[in-house]
Design a protein that fits this description.
The structure holds five protein chains of five kinds. Chain A is α/β, with parallel strands linked by helices. Chain A has helices at 51-58, 81-86, 104-111, 118-131, 133-137, 148-161, 178-195, 206-212, 230-235, 237-243, and strands spanning 12-19, 28-35, 40-44, 64-71, 74-75, 89-92, 166-170, 198-202, 215-220, 223-229. Chain A contains ten helices and ten strands. A six-stranded mixed beta sheet of chain A has the order 6-7-8-3-9-10, with helices on both faces. Chain A has a four-stranded antiparallel beta sheet with strand order 2-1-4-5. Chain A folds into two domains: 6-88 and 164-244, P-loop containing nucleotide triphosphate hydrolases (Rossmann fold); 99-161, no CATH class. In chain A, helix 4 (118-131) crosses helix 6 (148-161). By secondary structure, chain B is of the alpha/beta class. Chain B is elongated. Chain B starts with 5 loop residues before the first strand and ends in a 19-residue tail after the last strand. By secondary structure, chain C is mainly α. Chain C has helices at residues 2-24, 27-31, 40-66, 74-91, 95-117, 122-142, 144-147, 161-183, 186-196, 198-203, 208-234, 239-242, 245-258, 264-284, 288-302, 306-312, 318-327; strands at 153-154, 236-237. In chain C, strands 1-2 form a two-stranded antiparallel ribbon. The longest helix of chain C has 27 residues, at 40-66. Classes of the chains: A alpha/beta, B alpha/beta, C mainly alpha, D alpha/beta, E mainly alpha. The interface between B and C is large, with 42 and 33 residues. The complex binds adenosine-5'-triphosphate (2 copies) and magnesium ion (2 copies). One adenosine-5'-triphosphate sits between chains D (30, 33, 35, 53, 55-61, 102) and A (145-149, 175).
Chain lengths: 247, 421, 344, 270, 296
Amino acid sequence: MTMDSNNGRPLLEIQDVYSGYRTDFDILKGVNIHVKPGEIVCVIGPNGAGKSTVFKALYGFITVRQGRVLFDDRDITNIRPQDALKSGITIVPQLRSVFPQMTVKENLEMGMYLERDKKRINRQIDYIFDLFPRLAERAKQKVGTMSGGEQRMLEIGRALMWEPKLVLMDEPSAGLAPLITKSIFRGIKQLNQQIGLTVLMIEQNARQGLEISDRGYVLELGRNSYEGTGQELLHNSEVRRAFLGGH
Amino acid sequence: GSSDTEETATDTDTAAETTTDEGSAEVADAPAAESDDTMMEEACTDVITLGAAVSETGKYAREGKDTRQGYNTWLNWVNNEYGGIKVGDNCYKVEIVYYDDEGDPDTAASLVERLITEDEVDYLLGPYSSGLTMSTSAIAEKYGVIMIEGNGASEDIFSRGFQNIFAVLTPAGNYTESALKALADQGAKTVVIAYEDTAFPTSVGAGAEKWAKEYGMDVLAVETYPIDVADVTAIMTKFRDLNPDVFVGGGHYNDALLFVRASQELGFNPGAMVITVGPSNPEFPTEVGDAANYIIGPTQWERTMSWEDEYFGTPEEYAVRYEGEWGEPPSYQAAESTATALALQLAIEAAGTTDMDAVRQALFDLDVMTFYGPINFDETGKNAGKPMGAIQIQDGVINVVAPTEAAVTDLQYPMPAWEER
Amino acid sequence: MLATWRRYKLTRWLALVLLIVLILLPLPQFLAPERKLVTNSLLFSFTQLFMLIWMASNWNAFSGFTGYVDFGHAVFFGLGAYGTGVLMVKLGVPFPIAVLGGAIVAAIFAFLIGSATLRLKGPYFSIAMLGTFVAMREIVRIIKPITGGGSGLTLPPYLNRPLFYYVTLIGMAIVVLLIWLMRRTQFGASLIAIREDEVGAEMRGINTTRHKITIFCLACFSTGIVGGLWAYQNTFIDPDIVFFESRTIELVMMTILGGLGTVAGPVVGATVLYWLRDIIWANFLDYHLIVQGIMLILIVLFVPEGIMGIIGDPDSTSLGRLWKKHFGQGEETEQPTTTTEVQS
Amino acid sequence: MTVALHSAESPSPARTDQPLLEGRGVSKFFGGLAALTDVDFQVYRGEVMGLIGPNGSGKTTLFDCLSCVQRVSQGEIHFKGTDITKFKPYQVAHLGLARTFQVIRVYRKLTVLENMLLSLQWGNLTMRNKFRPNSAETEARARQLIDFLLLKRVTDEKAGNLSGGQQRLLEIGMALMPDPDLLLLDEATSGVNPTLIEEIKSRIRILNEEQGKTFLLIEHNVQFISDLCSRVFVLNYGEKLAEGTPDEIMNNQEVIEAYFGAEAGDDDGF
Amino acid sequence: MEQLTQATINGVMLGGYYAVMVLGFSIIWGVMGVINLAHGEFIMIGAYLTWIMNKQFGWEPLTAIIVVVPVMFVLGYILQRILINRIIDRPYLISLLVTFSLAIIIANATKLIFTATPRTVNTVYSGFWRIGETSITVPKTRAIVLIAALIIMGLLWLFLQRTRLGKSIRAAAQNREAARIVGIEIAAVYALTFAICIALTGAAGVLISPTTPIYPFMGGPLTLKAFAITAMSGLGSIPGALAGGVVLGLVETLIATFVPGVGTNLGIVSSFVILVVVLVVRPQGLFGGLKAAEAH
Ligand SMILES: Nc1ncnc2c1ncn2[C@@H]1O[C@H](COP(=O)(O)OP(=O)(O)OP(=O)(O)O)[C@@H](O)[C@H]1O
Ligand SMILES: Nc1ncnc2c1ncn2[C@@H]1O[C@H](COP(=O)(O)OP(=O)(O)OP(=O)(O)O)[C@@H](O)[C@H]1O
Ligand SMILES: [Mg+2]
Ligand SMILES: [Mg+2]
């Protein structure tokens, strides 16, 4: 499982980050996470721990007040969303983020909004349609009328359109049927192995998430409290009891 | 109280209006400092205080300014040249307490109440606009204080049975009389009327209908339109199909522009266009250009008119005096404001006392000629004596064409079709 | 928590004292009218202010609580005024009954129009009400035989300032009190629920249609009364002075300034704006509308939760935060913390 | 994937033959798309029933129809023996049906406590009581539920500022608040921490066994369904695919293909 | 019959103008969720600029468009950056109040500069064409306005459908968060949208100038109309604006023509009654729009 997780410098490094929504109150109080190229890293933790907040701080939706974020050895602290995208990070947020009045295909095209090469866009669309045949079936449907799970697929597909170096996925499996969840996790793993896609994801479906992950973090009260390989965390009794609803 | 601006104008205070805020309420009550040039007059010791709530700001700011300047023209004249109001053997200096009514009926009402109860003015001068006169005259009536005004022409002001409201201007119903009479004399037979559906234009429209019939013309159609109308094409299209001799339009300056534009665009060619507000404004011919020619408009007063009195002389003489004092030519609002105050003065002098009832009776009895025209109040307080003037734009110049006693040139009728100009 | 409670208790006492002072204020009028301690025009100013507070409270009780922004609220003022006017002038009904009649006219119309427009969401409701307002003004103009058309109606003049003072003061106080009580009930709370998520509220068992229409009719009835009072004390009504767009805008501004959806908001907002406007008027003359516009933009941008918002929760506004940063010490606002009570 | 079936053994109390909630031939069309076609189903008093199906199979649509948020295109719905097909949502709520939403619907600007207080069952309130302040009992009940859902520290926080999972928990709390007879939970545990899911599970069990509450659950959490439900109903493309005990369902080949996915790697999907 | 034809012609021309005048308002609302109550004031500024060009430099009114569009574009851009940007994520009531205050400021500043006196511009193409031997006429100014309006609308449609910026404007209208995620610089898109719409609105001011008096307070009624038409026809929908404008223009004109006496008043009433009815019956507007179904 952890075949290529030890070589090279981290692709993403979150160093002691403090951030929050109000000027005088931090939600994140010193988060440290690193992701090496080609790794799948999973963050778990109780509700309201600040997991999504980490992503928002990473992607420039809220400001980092203290600490640094490094990506590819560049300082990307408080980068703007479009620049994050340009440097090769895409995000699948926790809450819905589709263009409801556009068709599936148009939504995917928007995933490559910054790309001007039509051919490449079409190639990528075909690729996504291969990944998610369900989306291909509905290529012309207005996304607003699709079911929750279908929209989730689309969001993941759109994030992959850009051929990112790193994908941030906030609970990718939420609301997906087991079949799809499995295939998405399997797909993530596949992409990870085939093209070396690096993934940082948040999962409440912690077992499955950790199963496919190289490493994992536990986030509590705005700090990371445990860290280890996916298997270590899965078998750590402390973690099991507190976060995996373990038996 | 509210912090309305207030000022006192006396003989010493002829310059541009000084405005102070609340703290200056005492200024109104304190006798104004006498300046040297009044020494030659035998000093009048008594004072008559007049009160006026006139817009200084708000939508009537411009007209309010004219109104004040009109009142002040009279004030300066009566205190400095005329030597105070003569009542029997006594003479009275005059003070006017002004407030700014902001063009708002609530504020105006409140201020008039304050003038009566706190400032204890002897008589009231009217505000600008029919609407404000409407609400303030009720208060004057309640306290039995005379309010004489020159800027509320709506007929409704005078239909409430009030005993204390007098107006020197020709009421709205008579606005079109002279013009229609002159046109009838020239052979016009048919009339169409369009007016904005608010108080003043409605009175004008009803009057036009009445006078047209009076002078033997047929009224083919009457149309109303709402305030702030942006398009009158439909009305003008209807009128075009009726092919009338005379078009009468009542409303605002804007509407005048709309009427002219629309008839030009649609090829509506009446023999004459009489439009109540607009044509008599000097800016109208400049703005509209050639299309303004032949348009007829009623006017309360023009400096070229041929009235005369022993106080201000002819309208032209009045205008010169006014220009000297204020640096701009008088609008008719200014002239009627001066005439308003003059009428009050004449009534007080006729009564020979400042007693309210006697002055009221004297006002009802008044029948005089002034630079502004004849003044003769009927039992409702309207000035029944004064005919409305009419002007016509001729080669870009505003000329008085009616009534005959005030006219300077002849009426040009009919106007040529738009295609042929 | 305790500090908050104390502060509210203090406000309540202040309000009571103020009310008593206001009630006693016109007494000199009766005891010694010649001593001009309290003048008619002062009473008149207060009367105007009370009417504004009254109407702003009505508007807030509906729009502030339910979130349906009524941009044509002046139509109910107008209907109340015309209802009263027509009853008095054309039918000779005595004033107290005529005012009630006018308010009932307003409420009935509110019921009819509300049944249709309250199904609309957000700005669409606002536009529909604005449209209703403009249409009603023209309709009143058109039905001349009843309303006197564009020339308006002249009511019998009856200018008893102290009386109007008392009527508006007591009316206003009652309305504010009722709204205060209402906010504490399930009825009031469900209005807020409608504002926050109407579909959710409906599915959680709130009969939203009935609630909306009830509060709408009540608010409009109340505004109708104010319209009737105004008509009588102004002695003259015509379509343009009673159906006056700015009247609604004024109420909205006052409520926002004070605090939308709070009981005290309209009271505070109306009072502050009333005096503030006079000050601006006096000091800027030609520019006063421009200054007023700029001021309103600043208020809306920087104090969107209004004065009550600053008092209640300094964090909700940038101005409040600034204030707290520089002068604040006292109350520690309870901060949200993440939940990790994993095991007991 | 075969899990020990808890509730198969646990007796379902007070199960009667009169269904509490019944849909007869329910169909729902969106333009040309049939989201539900001719679905017949019953929920009996006192049972915990699961509703599963692939994404887009019409589960949420069915909930919407049951709670009258959407009008059915064809068919009838009966609740407690009353035909509620044409009812308004609030009327259904008054009858004792509460639900949660897949797309979270909390009153974002109100605090957690206020959210709870507002969700009181309205059918039990007289007009007079509507105009009275909340009673102390109501508040106590609300606080108790908040404690249970681990939301105590955010009791006075605006609901809109809660994390995704916290909002979900609040949704559940709001559905429990009015003490309804039937609860429809739409993916109530998606995004909720597994430890808390266990708590919710036991709470549901307690409510069901001790208070006889009836549940209808949409879930993608197979463990949850199999632990709790006595019966499972499977939808696929808007039609009933299967119905039975969790055991039966999980061994049903059709369901496995359409929903669970075979254990061994088959390569469709991704 | 001739009267009917004439009324129809007038109505359609009025409608064409309504349509072009409403577009800027409609797109700003659709994309940014900002209801711009200062819309009429921007038309007014456009008209005043035209008047200056016409009176000071003797330009034909329509040629003023080449000055007005860039000036208004810059004005819009600046305003967006310093003011509108701050209200985009706020409840719509906030945007209503801020833009309303903006309207007051603009109107009163204009009054201070130009006085309240209404102005008019003069064209060489005033007058009308007569159709055959009938009494039916086609006003030249209005016909030209109609043609210009159609051209402007066509260009705008192409812009929104075909260009990247157009696409990002549509995307931003549907989901801001998502638009940011895919790399759309939302602030720039908003600023450009606003600037374009204000330029468009200024152009409407140029078009309106030959047919109506120009004065500081002309904006209010225009905004009201824009509000009504947009609500009727759907946010940001160009075909919708055209249809809505023409329907309203026709209804107003036909009623005004065929009801004697109070026709013009009734026309105004009916347009608002229609508005309320349309809203109640079809709240998403008659033609969908940026936020509702978008026709391709
Ligand atoms: N308003 C609508 N208009 C058109 N189609 C709709 C509408 N609502 C739902 N649908 C369609 O109906 C089908 C069923 O949707 P539904 O939301 O009920 O699925 P679901 O079973 O709840 O899926 P999920 O598990 O992903 O939430 C989907 O294919 C969806 O595209
Ligand atoms: N927009 C916001 N404004 C203020 N506070 C917020 C906001 N969003 C989240 N919070 C607070 O920040 C904390 C962390 O939220 P976050 O969304 O990061 O949690 P999370 O770990 O993702 O939880 P979950 O698993 O439930 O999604 C929570 O306590 C929440 O109340
Ligand atoms: Mg989260
Ligand atoms: Mg669903």
